[in-house]
Amino acid sequence: MAESLARTVQRFVETCPYVISVHDLVTKVRIELQGGYFVDLYYNDTLGKYAYTLVRHNQRVISWDNARHHPDLPNFPHHFHHVDGHVEPSDLVGIPEQDIDIVVAGVNNLLES
Fold first, then answer.
1. What is the pLDDT of residues 46-97, one digit of tens each?
2. Which of 38, 40, 80, 89 is most solvent-facing, going by the fewest CB within 10 Å?
């Protein structure tokens, strides 16, 4: 696991009270959460690509990524997928250690409700 992703995972674990366990799956890290949720954290330093996805029952709940499939959005390629499927620009910038606070806040808010 790359150093940057390792620090990002540590920050997530420290700031999300719902964490049960962490699993290194070679290409991503899966963090198991209470309530049958898990978060997949993917970051490729060489390519500058990331995806942070909250999943439940094998279905995406919310996610942030920088795949280049929404070129019309401000802050392209950074975007957020809502629960209802709506996509909007995100405040992420592609620096995992900086971005993870936004991700944790989104996950915590959803799990608190």
1. 999 999 999 999 999 999 999 999 999 999 999 999 999 999 999 999 999 9
2. 89
Structure pTM? 0.93
Q: Which two tokens stand for residue 33?
A: 């959460």
Cα angle 69-93-44, degrees, rounded to a multiple of 5:
70
Sign of the torsion angle spanned by Cα atoms 102, 90, 3, 53: positive
The domain limits of the chain are 3-112
List all residues 6 or more positions away from 97 whose beta carbon is below 8 Å from its beta carbon: 4, 7, 8, 11
| Helix, strand and coil percent figures for the chain, each rounded to 5 | 30, 35, 35
